[in-house]
Structure formats: C-alpha cells, structure tokens
Amino acid sequence: MAITPWVTWPALTSFGSIGVMGALLVLGSERTNLLENNMFDMEQWAKHNANLVCDERSLTARTVDGTCNILENPAEGSVYRRFGRNVDPVSVWAENNAGTLLTPNPREVSNVLMARGDEFKPATSLNFIAAAWIQFMVHDWFDHGPQSDADPMRIQLPSGDPLGSGEMVVKRTMPDPTRSAEDAALPPTFQNTNTHWWDGSQLYGSDQATNDSVRAFEGGRLKVDSDNTLPTELMSGKPVTGFNENWWVGLSMLHRLFTLEHNAVADRLAEAYPDASDEWLYDRARLVNAALMAKIHTVEWTPAILANPVLERAMYANWWGLGGDRDKRDKYQDDLANLNQNFNQLGNLFRLIGLNSNLGQNDSGFLEHALGGLVGSRTPADYDVPYTLTEEFVAVYRMHPLLRDSIEVYDIGSNVVDASIPLPETRDGDAEDLLDDVGADRMWYSFGITNPGSLTLKNYPDFMRNLNVPVRGNLDMATIDILRDRERGVPRYNEFRRQIGLKPITKFEDLTADPQTLSELKRLYNNDIEQIDTLVGQLAEETRPDGFGFGETAFQIFILNASRRLMTDRFFTSDYRAEVYTQEGIDWVENNTMVDVIKRHYPNLSASLVGMDNAFKPWGLNMPAEYEQWDADAKAQHLWTNGVMRTAYDANELPAIPPVNIGGLIDSILWTKVNRVGDVAPAGYEKPLHPKAAVARVKFVPAAGSQYTGLFQGADHGLLRLSLTGDPADRGYAPGLALKLFADGKPSENISALYTLSGQGDNYNFFANEMSNYVSPEANESLGSTILFSLVSTKPTLVMANAMAEVRQDGSAVASPKAPTQIYFVPGADVRGVFASDPHDFREDLMALPQGVKVYDVYATSATIRSSIFPSLNRRYANERRQGATKIGELHTSTPFVASAFGDSGIFFKHQRYEDR
Ligand code: HEM
Ligand code: HEM
After folding, report:
1. Inter-residue contact 320 to 591 (CB < 8 Å)
2. CA distance 726 to 50
3. Pocket residues for ligand 1 (CB within 6 Å)?
4. 865 Cα to the center of ligand 2, angstroms
C-alpha cells in the first residue's frame, strides 16, 4: 500500500460488513486515544463553583445558564466558561508567538483561495436544510460574543483587491475578563457566551432574562403569536428567541419549527399530567426538545453529511449503542458475535490496508466499549477533564461555504423556480417577513430540494465576503474565519493534524491535484506546508472517505467532541430516563425524526416527504419498501408530486424527441417490459421507443352496465402517458398511449395502445385517430419491432388487459374476472379536431389543455382476435370487432398534462403478454 498521509480505515468498507465493523473499531479506538490525550482543561472550576448552589429543580431539569448539570462540579459546561483545547497548549503558544497573525495576508487568502466567483459548487447529496441546521446547532453550542474595540487588527488590502487600496479593520475577539494571576501558565483563553451543553440554548437562552422573554408561563409553552409565528423585537424585527445573532431566513425556519415542537411536547405532557405546573411542564418539554434535536443531529444530519456506512453505524452507536432501541441492539449483538468469530480475518484486513494496529486481537469487552452507545449510559464519563467545547471545535465548524448566494423558491411539488432571492435580502429583520410572504411550507420545500455549497476551496459565498453586519459594517467573513483561528492560537493545518493524531502532509500535492490551486497555495504560503492555514487545509483536502462532505481533519475533532457532548451530560446518560423525562418524553425523543417534526407542523409537505428517511438529503421521489401497500390515491399522488411535478421541464425548454433507437431494443429491455412489476423503471433502464411524453393524472369513469370487471368498473386514480415512438421527422408520426390504474395495496395495472405500428405518416395531430392495445401486424413495418418483440411473445402486436379485470380499485380480487380482448381509445370531444396537423410539438398541445377534459371515450369488445395472413381479411376481422365494440367508460384528466424527466424515463408501464394472461 502506497504511503499516504490519509487515514486508511475507509478502505475497509470494501470488505463488506466485517470491514465496516473493523472500521468502527478503528474509529472507536481513535476516539479513546483522543479522549485520553487531547482534552486540555483551561478553566479554574473551584473559583466558579464557590458561589453556586444547585437547587431542587436543577436535579431534574436543565438550568438557564447550564450550571448544575454535573452536581459535583456545577460550573461545568455553563455559560461564560472558557473554551478548552484539543491541542497541547504548547502548540497554541507557538502559534500565538510566531508573529504571523497577518501572514500570509488573510484577505489575499480569501481573494485567491476562498472566493466562489461565478461558479457555485453544490454538495449534491445534501439539501439546503442541512446548512441552516448546522448553524442552528452551532448557536446552541457556542459563540465568542461581541468583539473588543481595543487594538483592532489592520489588514493591508492586497494589490488588485476589488475593494481598492487601503486597509481592512477587524476587531479582536473579546479577551477573557476572568483571567487572573493563577492563569499565567495558560495560553490565551476565551469565554463561551452560550452554554457549552447540547441543551437547546439557542431557543431557551443562556441567561435568566432571555429565558423569561421566550417562555409563555402557561402550560409549559414558549411564547408564539396567534398565527404560530415567533414574536419579534421591536427595533430589529428579529424573532425573540434564545440566540438571534447572524440571523437569516434559514434560522427563522428552524427556530419557528422547534419552538412549535416544544409547544407540541408541552401540550402532550399537559394532557398526560393535567395537574402539572407550568414550570414542571416547561422543564420536561425542554429536556425532550433538546434531546430530540441532539438525536436528529446524531443519527440524521451527521450520516447525511458523512454519508458513509461506517459513519452511519458509528452515529447510531452513539445514540443507541447496545442498549435502548431493541431492534438496533439486537443487530449489534449479531455484529459483535460475527466480529468475535472473525478476529483473525480482521487482523489481516488491518494489515492489508496498512493499519499498524492490534485491534483485531482485542477481546469483546473492548469491542463493546468501543461500539457502546453513549446515550443512556449508566454514568456520565468525562475522562477526567470537565466538559467544555474547544477552540479547535469552533475552528472546524467554520462551514460558511455551505451557504448559497441566493435562495431559489419553488411551489410545493414543483421544480420550476418561482423566485430567486439574494441571501442578504433574507437577513435580520427581513427573515420573518419573507417567511410569511413566501409561506413557511413553501420555504421548507424549497430548502428541501436545493443543495448547499460543498465544503471546498473557492466556494465561499460572495455575499459573505462583503457582509453587512449592523453596527460592525461590511466584513469579509472569509478573511475573518482565517484570522480568528490564528488569533485564538489554533495551530496551522499540519501542526493541527500532528496534534490530533493524524499524519502530517509532506507536500502540497498531498492536498490537491488541481495545478492552479497548487501554484496558488505554494505562492501564498511561500512554499512552506507548515504555514497553510487550518481552514484552508481542511477545505483543500481532496482525499476524503467515501461520501464525506468534509475531510478527515475536521472529522477527527468531530468524533471527539460529538461524543463528549453526549457522554459527559447527565441528561443524556444517567438521567436520560422516564423518571426525569417522563415516559411520554422518552418515547417522543425515540420515536420522532426530523421528517416527523416537519410533517407535524407543515402537514401539506407530507406528499413531498413520502419515503424520505432523512430530511437533510435532497427531497424527491423515494420508493419505500412498503409503497405497494399504500392506497391508490397515495401512490398516484406520490408519483405525480414527487416524480412528475418535481422534474417538470420548463415549458420553453422541452428536450428534443430523439429518433427511435432500434439498437436499444435489447433482450433485457424487452423482458423487463413484459416481466417487471412496479411503477418506476429500474435504474439504468432507457426507453428506446416512446422516449418523450406528457403525463396527466386521470380517472377512468365506467359506462353504466359495462360487463367488464375489476378496474374496468371504475378507477379514480390513474396516470396517462401520451407519447410518440420517436422523432416524427425520422419515421413518421406514430402516437401511443400508456394507462396505469392504481389499486389499494396491490400493484397497479397497465395497458398500452397504438394507432398502428408505423403510425399516421405526416399528420401531426395527436388525436387524429383512435388507438388500441391490438394492432395488425404489418408486412413492411418500417421499425421491424414486431420481429424483435417476437423474441418475447408469440403475439407481439397485442398487449393484454386481463390483469386489469382481476383487481378492483379497493384492492379486492375479482372472483370471476371478465376482461375485453380489445380496447379502443377514441379521442373525446374536448380534443378531437382541436389541434393542427402540420408539424409542431404534440407536448405543447397537451400542456395547453386544462384539467378536467375528457381525453378518450373507451370502447371494448370481447370478441376473439382472429388474424389472417391476408391483409384484406385482417382488415375485415378488425372492422367486425370494432363494429361490435361498446362503450365501457371515459378517461378524464384530473390535472393538466406535464412533460417531465420522470414522465419520460422514470415511470414504467408493464405490458401484459398473451402468454401471461
Ligand atoms: C447567513 C448566514 C450566516 C451569517 C450571516 C453568519 C455570520 C457570522 C458572523 C458575523 C460571525 C462572527 C465573525 C467574527 O468572529 O467576527 C460568524 C461566526 C461563525 N459562524 Fe457564521 N454565519 C452564517 C452562517 C453560518 C453557518 C451555515 C455556519 C455553519 C456551521 C456558521 C458557522 C460559524 C462559526 C463556527 C462561527 C465562529 C463562531 C465563534 O467564533 O464563536 N455560520 N458567522
Ligand atoms: C410483446 C410485445 C411487445 C414488446 C416486447 C414491447 C416492448 C416495448 C418497449 C421496450 C417499450 C419502450 C420502453 C418503455 O416504454 O418502457 C414499449 C413501449 C410502448 N409500447 Fe410496446 N411492446 C410490445 C407490444 C406492444 C403493443 C402490441 C403495443 C400496442 C398496441 C405497444 C405499445 C407501446 C406503447 C404505447 C409504448 C410507450 C409507452 C408504454 O406503454 O410504456 N407495445 N414497448
């Protein structure tokens, strides 16, 4: 294995589940190393404990300032306590004393390596909710508070700077006012102006006055206005909430959502405990709401941004581990047994990927420890260092490149941008107004389907490099991000890696292969890898574990602190129990996900969230395992909203209709077409015929007295797909239709029809002729498809309707089914003779139709289909059958026709063969 500075555990995932478990072990032991070696306490606890008294209430509730979580050390994790360190203080001193605060010029780093310019680089596996979420979390965890006016940092604008010449002035971080003589040995320290705990302080505040301002003092609830929005501050227009700095609409959404969630929990508890006081209800609701947010972050947000099987397991282990959730616990037991049996193999795998580790020789006690859950552990564990967050933790959460420069607003279900709002226009006092104007549900949908930026170099949002902050003026946040780490003594990138147990890089080329970026890095950092700023290095890391939205350097800090936030907190360990939370409370945390929370408060997003198991991944069509069990309406609605509507083309950008692709009619496609049960084509399936279409939801309204059974007796939920075999300029105009009717809890049934195999020549009126599921074979059929279709059926010009007669819309089976042999779709009065016959795009005609039109009268016969080798006889038989056909119903649209990517290549219509009748 080549020598690389990068961690090798990701390679283990290619060895299947044993490899995944092995990788978990590596992470587990890595975490233990960090816990033992990388926690540096900066605080004088005794001094702060001196005046603290933990009252009765604090035994079972979180306090406003975070004190009394750890009863033996009550100041631990509370507001205004110092950030700790994950790196040796010696390295902090070294950074501080190097005299390189302004070297290289941070504004030049920003201009050259951070600026996004015109090219937004999306993180396609995430949605924009994920960006707002992490800022929402950060505001729970930490803030350095207002800056100092003394001795600001003055940065010379580099030559050629878009701002011209002169200097940029950045205020310093507020020095720690609690420093005293006994701190002389410590490097510079800074206070966290929020509680360090994962306690929802962004909603509840970190001091009494703020907490009082958000509580309703009734029923345990938080204050909301009569329309369920947050009260706003008179001057700023920003919501009244626990922490409202750096405000924009993404925060308005989340603060509103989780304020409403708090109230939902409080209401539930009030119902279960009608005699409980406001305070008692409030305290429990806060515990529950905070724990739910922590769980969502652990098992949903994190696996979304670090979408790797190892991580998903690791995060589940953090929350559930070996206790708690029964199903998951059992799964771990199996995994452990499996691992125990395969120790030797594991050791070999480790050697194979160059891991110099004897993990494979450990006993199962170690395994359980490494994999064990943190939540619900018997006692909090702090590894002898009182819990605080750290400066290095702050440094790795500088994720401003996640932000877009504008917010694209969509109607629910649509993928057509309705409005594009520059992000700065969504800030501060504008946020709440905008949310009300756009509608919170539309905004959630819009965030759900758009991507954040990826965490890479040259992807820093433009607006943030010229950010107007009230009182502070215009700031370049990229410059500030770089400066802050230096100012606070966070070591530069390579030293940072050494300090946290990662291998240092040895050359710039380790980071990136991009020649331009390489030469810029080398120039700015004077060819010295030791000078690379820690943020720049992190964003530059191109080698990342599969699926990782950020690199291993940030991840190393993350596994340490993410675990500590849980394992040191009394309310996530010994007091995560019904006696403290109530049973209803514990159930609420365990049983709800972000998807549930969004649906609870915005029920009309339900359709957009169908099948989504992770609200932070792009919303769209997901086909859950139990899809077939749904009722007819839900299935049709799902395919329509999340399939068709979500992927609709812009009306003036319809993709061209390609010619028929005879070469694409390969065996596997033909067999799929007649065998596959399901409404969505398998991945990679392409339609070689009828590639482009328009689709509408339809109802089949039966004619009185129709003798045909099952869905022929009526179907309220159907999809009609109208298409051409291919580009009409190529082999003539050959229209076709496919109809899918849905049944509750059963697979849908389908039928397809054509006018004739070779079509209607140069008549471009889609509704010029009726269509049928049986067409006569044609001797000179230009496609030759009949011959190909003969490979899979003895009657290649017939699609059967039998299955459609066997099931009713309610899913019940028909005892004696009766199906027609041949069906005729006769253009209805609303569409007959309406459209032109000269060359034009049929989809535009269809899209111009309003909903509620009768597209077809449906006729049928049960006469046996006879055929002859003589075309004239064939025609006579066909005429006789047609004469004998009676009207069995009508097809009415219940939506307009829409042309969409899903309607073109996603939706699938099975053909029932003669052999399968
Ligand atoms: C429109 C959205 C946002 C605005 C306006 C904003 C603005 C700011 C400002 C003004 C600061 C303080 C800068 C200073 O130290 O002087 C800051 C710090 C920070 N921001 Fe953002 N930010 C936004 C979104 C985000 C997001 C999405 C993240 C993702 C994690 C994030 C993470 C941080 C972190 C970690 C800090 C450092 C905090 C500290 O020093 O304690 N921000 N942001
Ligand atoms: C057993 C013989 C047949 C085979 C193997 C076959 C195969 C195919 C294939 C591969 C496609 C394109 C892929 C797709 O839309 O998913 C297709 C589409 C289509 N076929 Fe057939 N076909 C057969 C018979 C027929 C007959 C007899 C008709 C009508 C009289 C017909 C009407 C259509 C129509 C309208 C489409 C486009 C939309 C759809 O139904 O999915 N086919 N067929």
Report:
1. no
2. 82
3. 131, 134-135, 138, 142-144, 246, 248, 394, 397-400, 402-403, 469, 477, 480, 484
4. 19
Contact 289, 297 (CB under 8 A): no
Instruction: Decide if 319 contacts 299 (C-beta within 8 A).
Output: yes
Query: What is the CA(592)–ligand 1 centre distance, in A?
Result: 29
What is the three-state SS of 505-532? Answer: CCCHHHCCCCHHHHHHHHHHCCCCHHHC
Q: How confident is the model at residue 652 (pLDDT cuts 50, 70, 90)?
A: confident
Residues with Cβ within 8 Å of 817's Cβ and at least 6 positions away in sequence, in order, are 709, 710, 802, 805, 806
Residues in the chain: 917
CA distance 172 to 148: 5
Q: Which atom of ligand 2 is nearest to the CA of 788?
A: 5
* Span 737-781, pLDDT tens digits: 999 999 999 999 999 999 999 899 999 999 999 999 999 888 666
**Cα distance between residue 148 and residue 16, in whole Å:** 54
Q: Specify whether the CB–CB gap between 676 and 783 falls below 8 A.
A: no
Pocket test for ligand 2, best of 677, 723, 739, 752 (most atoms within 8 A of CB): 752
**Which of 874 and 812 is assigned the larger pLDDT?**
812
Biggest distance spanned by C-alpha atoms of the chain: 110
- 689 Cβ closer than 6 Å to some ligand 2 atom: yes
Is the CB of residue 465 below 6 angstroms from any atom belonging to ligand 2?
no
Which residue of 110, 246, 407, 460 sits with most ligand 1 atoms within 8 Å of its CB, as the best mutation to test the pocket? 246
Q: Which helix (H) or strand (E) holds 410?
A: strand 406-410
Going from the N-terminus, what domains does the chain have, and what CATH number goes with each?
Answer: 38-143+170-320+373-572 (1.10.640.10), 632-916 (no CATH)
- Kindly report, residue by residue over 230-261, the tens digit of the pLDDT: 999 999 999 999 999 999 999 999 999 999 99
Q: Residue 794 has what DSSP assignment?
A: S
- 792 touches ligand 2 (CB under 6 Å): yes
Gap from CA of 394 to ligand 1 centroid (Å): 10
Q: 238 C-alpha to center of ligand 1: Å?
A: 17
The Å distance, Cα 911 to ligand 2 centre, comes to 7
CA-based nearest residue to 893, from 834, 811, 830, 825: 830
10 Å CB burial of residue 891 (0-12, 13-18, 19+) is buried
Cα–Cα nearest to 750, from 773, 767, 770, 771: 773
Question: DSSP states of 615-664 as a string?
Answer: TTSPP-----TTGGGS-HHHHHHHIIIIIIGGGBPPTT-PPP-PPP-GGG
Ligand 2 within 6 A of CB of 740: no
> Residue 481 Cα, ligand 1 centroid: separation in angstroms?
9
First to last CA, the chain: 58
Atom of ligand 2 nearest to the CA of 721: 38
Atom number in ligand 2 closest to CA 738: 40
Measured CA distances, 837 to 768, 769, 787, 826, 906 (Å): 8, 12, 31, 17, 29
Q: In the structure encoding, which two tokens stand for residue 538, read together? A: 């992190």
Active site residues: 397
Record the tokens describing residue 288, joined without a space: 């529950």
pLDDT digits (tens, 9 = 90+) for 24-82: 778 877 888 888 889 999 999 999 999 899 999 999 999 999 999 999 999 999 999 99
> How many alpha carbons lie under 13 Å from residue 555 in its C-beta half-sphere?
28
Would you call 794 exposed, middle or buried from its count of C-beta atoms within 10 A (0-12, 13-18, 19+)?
exposed
Tokens of 830: 């609303």
Nearest CA to ligand 1 atom 34: 398
HEC string of 217-283 equals: CCCCCECCCCCCCCCECCCCCCECCCCCCCCEHHHHHHHHHHHHHHHHHHHHHHHHCCCCCHHHHHH
Which pLDDT score is estimated for 323? 41
- In short, whether 723's Cβ falls inside 6 Å of ligand 2 is yes
Reading the block at residue 693, the tokens are 């279409």
